[in-house]
Amino acid sequence: MTAIKGLLVMDVDSTLVQEEVIDLLGEEAGVGKQVAEITERAMRGELDFQQALAERVATLKGLPESIFDKVYARIHFNKGAKKLVNELHARGYKIGLVSGGFHETVDRLAEEAEIDYVKANHLEIRDGILTGRTYGDIVTKDIKVQKLRDWAAENELSLNQTVAMGDGANDLPMIQLAGIGIAFCAKPIVREQAPYQIKEPDLYKVIEILDEVNI
After folding, report:
1. Other C-beta atoms within 10 Å of 183: how many?
2. What are phi and psi of 154, to 5 degrees?
3. Which is catalytic among the residues 13, 23, 116, 167?
4. Where are the domains of the chain?
5. What's the angle, vertex CA 44, arms to CA 75 and CA 10, rounded to 5?
6. Tens-digit pLDDT profile for residues 97-155
7. 11: annotated active-site residue
8. Is 13 noted as a catalytic residue in this protein?
9. CATH fold group of domain 6-213
C-alpha cells in the first residue's frame, strides 16, 4: 500500500459546494429567510453554533424525508472541486469533509466526488418525517479539530502534513491547527485570522498554495 503523503479536511457548505444546504431546506419549509439569517449570524461568529443549529432544525419539523432529493438537485459543487480531489488523490492525499450540515446530503456529495472521510450531523426522521431534531454528536468547531487530528493519526501523518479549509467561524480552529490553513471565500473573521486565502470560488487554487509551500 502506498504511504499517504497528506490530508485535506474541508467544510462543505459554501466551501465544497456553493450553497448552504440548511438554507435550501429552510426554503422548502417556507422559512428560508429566517433560516438564512440565523446561518449568516452563526458563520460570522455572533451566535453559538449548536444553539443556531437547533433553532434552524426546529423549523424543518414536519417535512417529508423526500425533501433531500429535491434539495440535492439544487446543490452545485464549487468550481474545481472534483479536479482538486482527483489531483490530491494522485499526489497521495486523503480528503475528509467536516460539516455542520447533514449526512443525508453530505454522504451523497462525498460519494459523487470520491471523498475518503465524512463527519456531519444527523437529522432525526420518524415514519418518513423530520422531527425538527438532530441525534448524535453535533459537529462543532471542536469536533472539526478532532476529526483533523483523528484522520491524520489514522494515516500516520503529523499535523504539519495536513491542510484545513473553510469559510465560517466554526472552521477557524482547524484552519489554525493545520499545517496549511486556508480561508475559502470566507467571512471577515476567518479572512483576518487564516494563514492563507482563496478569494475566488475556485477550489483548484488549493493546488497553487500547496505548490507554493511545497508540501
Report:
1. 26
2. -60, -30
3. 13
4. 6-213
5. 50
6. 999 999 999 999 999 999 999 999 999 999 999 999 999 999 999 999 999 999 999 99
7. yes
8. yes
9. Rossmann fold (3.40.50)
